[in-house]
TrEMBL record:
<keyword id="KW-0132">Cell division</keyword>
<comment type="pathway">
    <text>Cell wall biogenesis; peptidoglycan biosynthesis.</text>
</comment>
<feature type="domain" description="Mur ligase C-terminal">
    <location>
        <begin position="306"/>
        <end position="419"/>
    </location>
</feature>
<feature type="domain" description="Mur ligase central">
    <location>
        <begin position="108"/>
        <end position="283"/>
    </location>
</feature>
<dbReference type="GO" id="GO:0071555">
    <property type="term" value="P:cell wall organization"/>
</dbReference>
<keyword id="KW-0963">Cytoplasm</keyword>
<dbReference type="Pfam" id="PF21799">
    <property type="entry name" value="MurD-like_N"/>
</dbReference>
<dbReference type="InterPro" id="IPR036615">
    <property type="entry name" value="Mur_ligase_C_dom_sf"/>
</dbReference>
<keyword id="KW-0436">Ligase</keyword>
<keyword id="KW-0547">Nucleotide-binding</keyword>
<keyword id="KW-0131">Cell cycle</keyword>
<comment type="similarity">
    <text>Belongs to the MurCDEF family.</text>
</comment>
<dbReference type="Pfam" id="PF02875">
    <property type="entry name" value="Mur_ligase_C"/>
</dbReference>
<dbReference type="InterPro" id="IPR005762">
    <property type="entry name" value="MurD"/>
</dbReference>
<feature type="binding site">
    <location>
        <begin position="110"/>
        <end position="116"/>
    </location>
    <ligand>
        <name>ATP</name>
    </ligand>
</feature>
<dbReference type="GO" id="GO:0051301">
    <property type="term" value="P:cell division"/>
</dbReference>
<dbReference type="Pfam" id="PF08245">
    <property type="entry name" value="Mur_ligase_M"/>
</dbReference>
């Protein structure tokens, strides 16, 4: 008799898990409380996988031998509590997929920089000639790729939600970039629970696996001693013996040989991206990529959109799309990376931001602030005495025109919102795409 597998959520990870479950002989049922996208409906139908949308048939779900839940579903959801109370096993798509591959795994987490570092690590392995797949919180789901399982390595971006649903995952290399408050609504507004979720990645390493972490991060530093014994630890830093970043070069010592890359040769800019590059270089080197391939990969890497993405230059003013910057830490890195007077476009749905963390940087670098959102009061209060000019609008076209009027040759107009996008846009991608399109149409 086939084991009953229920998948809660029919997005990319859920559909990938359904395809893998079907391939591995499970009796698969997919249940989504929302509306399933047409592309996933078509895939499920084409593969003869039963599904429902707009509801959860609890009686059927509770009969399952195994439940795979979407990372977006909280442990506090009533249905999850009922499933757990009945004793059913609940895991995530990453955990399920990893059980069905013999490939080596690199996992990367952190509050900021995950996608950039994951994409760069993947790029460096590709540059080194590795047969490597990209998955997790970016690209195609790991489960979808494991159906055919043609890769020797997978590089995975892992959110705290994905890590929470992993129990026996065995990574070969794990990276923690940084930990700052985020998603606290999912962790009972307890920062310590969020920290534990991120640090969990080091408990998901093979014995003897490589643990890479930024030792200057206070939260990582005070929690690293809780990681499993028997791991190989690789701290990187802004200074000291472990490694070094200077004004001109990036240094790191993955094994025994110091590698030096001119900062000008690293395609992604800003101090935060030097740290991301260092983490990616460590991971790639430990995986066996040659120094030459790493240096070559640093030079020709192209980052994902909406992350300090240069859009165009108009009348000597640069326009940069950093729509992915949805918290204050991300904005700090963006402001720090720009070596020019800045007209800053910010705002949206505030996530409990503490703007005091960037006030000094704003005072030194920002000549004008355009508040873009339905409620801009918190931005006004934080910066009205620090920025020479502050304007507000709930229209992106008007915001960009205001910024253009304030900017002079040599300045940079920077969209780096510090906030979620849902008051005016579908998501941060929609916000960034609209910004790019409007700027490209400017006379």
């Amino acid at each position: 008799m086939k084991r009953k597998l229920t998948i809660l959520g029919a997005g990319e990870s859920g559909t990938g898990a359904a395809l893998l479950g079907k391939a591995k002989g499970y009796d698969v049922f997919v249940s989504d409380m929302g509306q399933i996208k047409t592309q996933y409906v078509q895939e499920l139908e084409a593969n003869g996988i039963e599904f429902e949308s707009g509801k959860h048939s609890e009686e059927r779900i509770l009969e399952s031998d195994l439940v795979i839940k979407s990372p977006g579903i909280s442990e506090s959801a009533p249905l999850i509590k009922k499933i757990r109370a009945k004793g059913n096993l609940v895991i995530g798509e990453i955990e399920f997929a990893a059980r069905h591959t013999a490939a080596k795994l690199i996992g990367i987490t952190g509050t900021n920089g995950k996608t950039t570092t994951t994409l760069l690590t993947y790029h460096l392995l590709k540059e080194g000639g590795f047969n490597v797949g990209l998955g997790g919180n970016v690209g195609k789901s790991l489960a979808r790729q494991v159906v055919e399982d043609q890769h020797d390595w997978y590089v995975l971006e892992l959110s705290s939600f994905q890590l929470d649903d992993c129990y026996e995952l065995k990574l070969n290399i794990a990276v923690v970039l940084n930990i700052t408050p985020d998603h606290l609504d999912r962790y009972d507004y307890d920062f310590e629970k969020y920290i534990a979720s991120k640090m969990r990645i080091f408990h998901l390493l093979h014995l003897g696996g490589h643990a890479i972490y930024w030792s200057d991060d206070r939260q990582i530093g005070r929690n690293i001693s809780k990681a499993n014994d028997g791991l190989k630890f690789h701290p990187y830093s802004l200074g000291g013996d472990a490694s070094e970043i200077t004004n001109d070069r990036l240094f790191y010592t993955p094994i025994n040989v110091e590698i030096s890359a001119p900062r000008a040769d690293i395609s992604i800019k800003g101090q935060h991206n030097m740290l991301n590059a260092k983490a990616a270089g460590y991971a790639a080197s430990l995986a066996g990529v040659s120094d030459e391939a790493i240096l070559r990969g640093f030079k020709n890497f192209k980052n994902a959109p909406h992350r300090l993405e240069p859009v165009r230059e108009i009348d000597g003013t640069k326009y940069i799309n950093d729509s992915k910057a949805t918290n204050v830490d991300s904005v700090y890195y963006a402001l720090d990376a720009v070596d020019a007077p800045i007209v800053w476009i910010a705002g949206g749905v505030d996530k409990g931001n503490d703007y005091s963390l960037i006030q000094a940087l704003v005072q030194n670098k920002v000549k004008g602030l355009i508040c873009l959102g339905k409620d801009n009061s918190k931005l006004f209060t934080a910066f009205e005495n620090l920025v020479p000019s502050i304007q507000a609008t709930d229209d992106l076209i008007k915001a960009i025109r205001m910024a253009k009027d304030l900017a002079a040759p040599g300045d940079t107009v920077l969209l780096s919102p510090a906030c979620a996008s849902f008051d005016l846009f579908k998501n941060y991608e929609d916000r960034g795409n609209q910004f790019r399109e409007i700027v490209m149409e400017l006379a």
